[in-house]
Write the structure tokens for this entry.
Amino acid sequence: MDDDFYTDLYESNFRTYVRENCNNTIEFPFIIVPDDEDVSVSNFDYWWKNTEASIKREFIDNLKIDRNKSEIESRLEQAFDADILQCISHIEFKKIFNNGSEHEYSNDNQLLVLMDKDLGGEDGLKYLSPLQDVPFIACGLFSGTFKIEEEIKQWEQHDYPSNIYPLAKERLTVIEEDFLPGLRNVLWLRQISDSKKKINTIYKNALELASSELSHLDPASFDNAIIQRSKGEGCWEFDMLQRILNILLRINVEKSILKTDNFEDIQSLTGKLKEISSSSVPVRPDPKTLKDIRYNEIYDNPSYINKTYSQIALGDIFQIQTGKYRGKYMLVCQPCNLEIRGNGERLSKEFVYLLPIKPKPKYQIDIPDDANVDKIKEIVQEQLEQLQKPKYVSVLQDISGEQAECVILSQSIRVSPKVLDLVCFNDKGKAQINPNQTVEQLINCDFLQPNMKKRYDKIRIDLKKYLDLCSNDEINGIPEPQKIDLLNLIRKPFELATKESIKAKFNPESQLIEFNIERIGRYREAYAQLVLKDFMDYQSRQAYPNDFSIIDDEFYNAEETKPSIDALNRKLN
């Protein structure tokens, strides 16, 4: 359906028809002067200009006059057989299809509709909208106002219709070989939308059933699974709720798929989609869409983790601020050793490991364009030696490309878990505490689990003892060197991190102790477990005893047959 297919395309053929039939007894709606073609045609022109399109069309249909073909219609007829192609105006479309209510289509008799987007000031979308959810009909919104590469963006701007694909007219008028792939995309959207609709229905029904089953879970079972077991194991009740709901959802999804003809329908839809998708060059997706989904599969939302006061866990990502430098680190520890028991303690009492996160090493040789042969050999040799050295890294299952990262297994730092625990007591993930503020005085006290409250008090009391000792008059009277030694000795049991990386700042007025570390995310456990395994393998690595039979020629001076000073220094350093 196109504006170009409307009544005005009959005009020249009609004028010719008038010339040829001036002397015939035909009742024209305008004055015909026999033997005078010019007057007759002039009268026709006046009538054509001042008559409504519907009246002109009715008379044209009665006389069965052919109309001229637009450029688009001619190109379409070259691409398709006449028995499957019909070019009509939107007015004809409205009469014939009557909003689609009088026509039925099936799997063997499908309809593909192309509607011009701009119909003399009208939006062609309104003519397609009634067909959007009609089975076996695929719709294309045909327009010259956008280019091929903008079709997906146009689809988004039209509020993601399930069965209306915006098709650029340049596919037919500029790049003809792209037209059939464009029609393929119209059918492709129909099949994808049908598949999504079927899956959404299955999951919607399954979620309702899972929700119902969760609501019918008897109170004793609910209490035991979510409260008692969480309390005993130091688990987070929220995680237990999600865990049980996900189990119920999975069970009901599987039931729904096998119920009635759902499985057959999904297989049939995906089978047709495979045929369509392999028929031509597919549309290139926006990489951001899939990368965002993939990223959220790998990483938990930091706002969710911090605002729900989640306990520190394997895969937690911390940022350490040292001057202008911000370094990222991942917490690596056996999950069961990190769980805080009912008494506020955990198995990993002394320290846990943080591993630095860095860009993934590039295993490639970079040679400058202006390098000569000797320089190239030197660079290749040097970089090959670097590539052969063990990297001791664990590559993160991150989004591929420039953002690919890894953790450096050989550069771990040991940190007392106490300093990391401090991020759990505020919704910003900051490692900070006021030792004079009891747990009952915390704004979020009611949302903290009992084991976390005990944990807070243990850390607070330890730090308060240290601050009290530091301000003790008896200690202040000791000479400075001895005082420093004594304070270091006192501080040792309460030291919360390696001094080189994490430092504390104390504000005497607010009594707030702040550490230069905060929690900024979490690498989900399924992926973090792989990093933990790599780290355990690194720690348990073994090597054969040193081979004392190797003679290092560089170490010996060939002339004097004794170690050279330079070579000796290199060895010692």
Notes: The radius of gyration is 39 Å. The longest helix spans residues 179-215. The first strand starts at residue 111 and ends at 116.
